[in-house]
Amino acid sequence: MGWLRGTCCCYCGQPQSRRFRYMKHHPFIQAVSDADIPAVLDFVFKARAELFPKLNATGMPDDLARFAEVYLRGEGRFLIARHEGQIVASIGYLPYDRRFPNLDYPGRKVVEIVRLFVVPSQRRSGLAAALYRSLKDLALADGVEVIYLHTHPFLPGAIAFWQRQGFEIIDVDADPVWQTTHMHAVMSGIEESAPHRTGPSDSAP
Questions:
Q1: CATH number of the domain at 4-186, please?
Q2: H or E element, residue 151
Q3: CB 41 within 8 A of CB 72
Q4: How many Å apart are CA 194 and CA 30, to the nearest integer?
Q5: Are 91 and 72 in contact (CB under 8 A)?
Q6: How far is it, in rounded angstroms, from Cα 4 to Cα 72?
Q7: SS3 string of 36-94?
Q8: What is the pLDDT of residues 159-204, one digit of tens each?
Q9: What pLDDT band is residue 110 in, cutting at 50, 70 and 90?
């Protein structure tokens, strides 16, 4: 099974004529509840393991280990889409932790998109874009000023997908393997400026 991932992002090409096909099949987007957590973790782990098998061996990421604390009762947000009762897509955001020292946003409230996965049956359906729009609405309600993400050229269609959502490339790591591509979107009404860069880009995800 091939999965789609959005921020280390997915193949999400959406021809105009098929953009809202997902509405015919009635997936619906919802916030995650405590009762959803086991199913969400199972979905995310399977998607992550297939897309990034080497990362799967590194153990459970902190945000997933503390899912309720981070996403339900913290400053993170997490959405899923269900179709016929099954989770078919996910997306979330976390406060940007400025772990990339060459990218800083002094005085800005910045979040980072994480865990965008879409199952094969929902490819090219518009669901990934709909998930992002719903997440963006939450970000605006939370007073977020900049949404950051990073992706990679080896993920087909990822960069182009995010550009269609209003993101721009702000830096690309020199690492020949990952070529991590940093992108951001400045929220409407916020004066746009490039992030403060403090050094060369050489980090992998």
A1: 3.40.630.30
A2: strand 146-151
A3: no
A4: 33
A5: no
A6: 24
A7: HHHHHHHHHHHHHHHHCHHHHCCCCCHHHHCHHHHHHCCCCEEEEEEECCEEEEEEEEE
A8: 999 999 999 999 999 988 889 999 999 997 655 555 655 444 443 3
A9: very high
